[in-house]
């Protein structure tokens, strides 16, 4: 009996030792794999960012310490990919209108943006929304002149001309769209839905992202080849850089994979962004008296949803510095070129991720932890770029929304 007890004790001890070793290996593997695996997820925030990106800075920030890799790849295939790529992701029969509504900033005859209880909803259909530019006129002149409102692409949002006929004049902003050759639904998300961040703040985020991404890429070879680190930790005896490179090529694999993945993610964002065309009208310094109004008809049914009456105007403290019209580019001129770029982007993104993952598996877990920290920091900053949005109390007719249905223009007349 004593010998049996000894045998069981030894076996139990060996089992506990094996379990402890397995637990240690599991924790090490989890720490090593956590960063790369988390970079695959984040569908909702990735789609939100891509659907609101219009500038070169937005594309670069998206590619630095990125998340939502699979969402970005699928999105660029849906927007710019050819039939074979769309079949590969199960989107062969998907129409362009549905993709544009979900991933692009543009509106068209089939896609509209509607005020919806403190937010803005993109949906299929046509909305009854009137955009009006109010132009105040001086009362102290007797000379009657014709009122007009002129817009020049890219340099001003209107110039005022005096008129003694009326105290105020209204110019429908839809005239701007007609002058551009298209009469599409208003772009509420860009102009009203979110407030554009100041350029210094965007540049600050850009610099932080570059520092984090470059620092992460440089960290691997510096720690392993110069600092003498290994998978288990720091070596007792340092090797020269040639010996360290021969002993462990994982850092260079990680660097190559990270560079290609970053370039691929930039390609995903830029392709999706460049499929649309933005026309900007900047406000003149001497036109501060002008004011934009948006009036939405009540009880209108678009699709299977009913939208109520809504009225919004520029805040006197935060006037629009520019008015943006976003439309989709002519597909016949861009589809062939974009399909080729999409192939390159998809291969670079997925291939870079695989190579990076292989490299990070051959290095210490601190590299993965640093990558995870960089991803979290950049995700926080990307979210901060989109925090200033339409307020819940922005509806000027919120208290009388039911009573004003059918008389929205009457309300606007008294408001102006």
UniProtKB/TrEMBL annotation:
The keyword Transmembrane applies. The chain crosses the membrane at residues 59-81, 204-231, 251-273, 338-359, 365-381. Residues 139-182 are annotated as: Disordered. Residues 144-153 have a biased composition (Polar residues). It comes from the Eukaryota. Residues 1-20 form the signal peptide. The keyword Transmembrane helix applies. Keywords: Membrane, Signal, Transmembrane, Transmembrane helix. This is ABC transmembrane type-1 domain-containing protein.
């Amino acid at each position: 009996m004593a010998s049996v007890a000894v045998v069981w004790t030894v076996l139990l001890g060996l089992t506990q030792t094996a379990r402890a070793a397995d637990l240690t290996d599991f924790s090490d593997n989890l720490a090593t794999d956590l960063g790369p695996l988390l970079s695959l997820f984040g569908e909702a925030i990735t789609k939100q960012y891509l659907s609101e990106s219009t500038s070169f800075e937005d594309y670069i920030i998206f590619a630095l310490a990125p998340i939502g890799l699979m969402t970005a790849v699928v999105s660029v295939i849906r927007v710019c990919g050819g039939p074979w790529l769309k079949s590969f992701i199960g989107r062969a029969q998907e129409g362009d209108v549905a993709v544009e509504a979900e991933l692009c900033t543009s509106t068209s005859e089939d896609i509209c943006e509607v005020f919806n209880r403190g937010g803005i909803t993109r949906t299929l259909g046509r909305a009854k929304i009137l955009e009006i530019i109010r132009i105040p006129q001086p009362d102290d002149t007797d000379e009657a002149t014709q009122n007009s409102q002129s817009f020049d692409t890219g340099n001003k949002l209107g110039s005022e001309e005096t008129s003694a006929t009326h105290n105020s004049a209204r110019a429908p902003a839809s005239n701007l769209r007609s002058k551009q050759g298209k009469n599409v639904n208003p772009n509420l998300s860009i102009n009203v839905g979110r407030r554009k961040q100041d350029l210094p703040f965007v540049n600050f985020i850009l610099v932080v992202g570059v520092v984090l991404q470059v620092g992460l890429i440089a960290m691997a070879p510096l720690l392993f080849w110069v600092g003498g680190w290994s998978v288990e930790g720091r070596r007792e005896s340092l090797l020269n850089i040639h010996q360290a490179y021969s002993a462990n090529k994982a850092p260079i694999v990680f660097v190559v994979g990270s560079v290609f993945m970053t370039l691929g993610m930039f390609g995903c964002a830029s392709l999706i962004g460049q499929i649309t065309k933005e026309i900007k009208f900047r406000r003149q310094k001497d036109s501060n008296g002008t004011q934009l109004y948006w009036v939405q008809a009540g009880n209108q049914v678009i699709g299977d949803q009913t939208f109520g009456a809504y009225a919004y105007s520029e805040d006197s403290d935060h006037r629009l510095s520019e008015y943006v019209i976003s439309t989709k580019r002519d597909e016949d001129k861009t589809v062939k070129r974009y399909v080729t770029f999409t192939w390159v982007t998809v291969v670079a993104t997925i291939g870079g991720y695989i190579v990076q993952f292989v490299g990070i598996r051959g290095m210490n877990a601190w590299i993965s932890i640093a990558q995870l920290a960089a991803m979290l920091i950049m995700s926080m900053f990307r979210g901060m770029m989109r925090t200033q949005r339409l307020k819940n109390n922005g509806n000027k007719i919120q208290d009388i929304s039911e009573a004003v249905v059918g008389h929205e223009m009457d309300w606007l007349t008294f408001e102006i």
